[in-house]
Structures are given as C-alpha cells and as structure tokens.
Amino acid sequence: MLLQGKTAVLTGNPYGIGRATANLFVREGARVVCIDDTSDGWAPHASLDGVAPHFLADVSNAAEVAALVPKCQQILRRVDILFNLAGRTIRQNFESTTLEAWNQMIARNLTAAFVCSQCFLPLMQDRPGGTIINHGSIDGVLGNPSLAAYSAGKGGVIPLTHVMAHDLGKYGIRVNCISTGGIRDGAARPNDADLVKATPSRRTGTPEDVAGVALFLASAWSSYVNGANIVVDGGRTTITQGCA
C-alpha cells in the first residue's frame, strides 16, 4: 500500500475525481477526510461510508474551513496529504460575464486552494514529507472560449503552485498541480464525439485516470517532484486547438 499510515484531506468536488481519489487513497492505506459544500456526492458511496468522513463548508471561505481544522485534527491527528480539488464552471462569453459570476469562479477555482492550504498548513509543517496537490485545468493553460472566469481562476493555480513549492519547501512539503482536460464521469454528452476526435488518445478521460496521478504525487514515488504541473488530458494540449 503506497499510502499506508498516511492521512489525507480532500477539499471540493465530491463527485468524479474527488470520489475516485478518495476511494483509491483509502484502498492504498490512507485515512481520508473530505470537505465540500454538499454531501450528496459522498453519501451514496458505500466504500467510503464510515471510512472517509465528510464535512460541509464553503472551501473558499477561510472562517468555515478554519472551523473544521480542529475536527480534522481530532480524526487524523495530522495531515500528510492535501488535495485541493474545488472547481466550478459557468459558461458565459466574455462580454456577458458578470462581476458576480467572475468573483464566484475566482473564489471557487483559485481562492479555495489558497484558503485550504493556509488553514491546513499548521497540521502539515511540523511533519516533513507532506504533499499538497492543486487541481488545475488545461483551460488555465490555454484558455477556453466562453470560460473567461474559469480559465483565469484555474490559470492562477499554476503559478500559485510554483510559489507554494518554493515557500513551503523549508517545511519538507512538496506542492504540485494536476491540470485536467476532457475528463468525463457518467453518461455521455452530446459533444463527446468531437472531444474524442480532438484527443490524440482517442478517448475521454475518467476520474480514475486523474486519481492515479494524484496517488503518484501523494506517494514516495514522487519524492523529488516539486512545483510541477502534470497535464492529464489525453494529449489535447499537444496540438494548437487543444481546448477546442
């Protein structure tokens, strides 16, 4: 088991990638706690019931997250792995994007990673070997039409990761980013055929594809990987119109 004896906090996204990662981490020996503003995604998942408790909080709200830190400490005692998974999309062309929507997207897609990392840092910095994983997107690398706020928010996650890797290295904490694209969970969507056509791997990605990379970054296998942005998109960003 790659994470035997480790503890992990997953913040945001109780569906898809979050659930797949929580499952994999538990199977690999970690004790997991999940935090998000909805419990719907965790509740029906039997393999996590009683194994990975979940708490409700707006992960971009520092006061709400800070209030949960003592509860997580009571369960886990410390935090070895923090996976900042929060993300949300509102599709609006640039000229129609409202300031309210902009602020919501920046809060969810960028501020949440900053807030959760700061709040849980005290449970990580006294124990070398910790790792923080931020969830980015290829939309934050190239931009995506009609997703100005989302692209900007996820785009900020990458330099945030670089700065965190530098500043937290003195605590023995590694910080890396996973930028995903074309990940599908559940029923097929109308544009899936176009997505597959634009993907060199000729398929859409699964939450498990991302969870495997998260496991690598959370484990000792990646002990010298720090400040990296690993793209998980089936090769879409290798071509000019990768986000099309």
Explain what this protein looks like in three dimensions.
This protein has a seven-stranded parallel β-sheet with strand order 3-2-1-4-5-6-7, sandwiched between helices. The longest helix has 22 residues, at 99-120. Helices cover 37% and strands 15% of the residues. The chain starts with 6 loop residues before the first strand and ends in a 12-residue tail after the last strand. It has one domain (7-238): 3-Layer(aba) Sandwich (Rossmann fold). The protein is built from seven helices and seven strands. Helix 2 runs parallel beside helix 3 and helix 3 (99-120) packs parallel to helix 5. The protein is of the alpha/beta class and 244 residues long. It is globular.
Keywords:
244 residues; alpha/beta; Rossmann fold; seven-stranded parallel beta sheet; 7 helices; 15% strand; SDR_fam; oxidoreductase activity, acting on the CH-OH group of donors, NAD or NADP as acceptor
CATH topology: Rossmann fold
Number of strands: 7
Strand content: 5-15%
| Order of adjacent strands in the largest pleated sheet | 3-2-1-4-5-6-7
Helix content: 25-40%
Treating each run of at least 4 consecutive H or I residues as one helix, how many helices? Answer: 7
The coarse silhouette is globular
Q: Report the CATH superfamily.
A: NAD(P)-binding Rossmann-like Domain
CATH class: Alpha Beta
Q: Tally the structural domains.
A: 1
What is the string of SSEs from the N terminus onward?
EHEEHEHEHHEHHE
Uncertain ranges? none
For the termini, the CA-CA separation is: 39 Å
The average pLDDT is: 89
Largest sheet: 7 strands, parallel
CATH architecture: 3-Layer(aba) Sandwich
Rg: 17 Å
GO molecular function, one term: oxidoreductase activity, acting on the CH-OH group of donors, NAD or NADP as acceptor
Protein name: Short-chain dehydrogenase
InterPro entries: NAD(P)-bd_dom_sf, Sc_DH/Rdtase_CS, SDR_fam
Family: Belongs to the short-chain dehydrogenases/reductases (SDR) family.
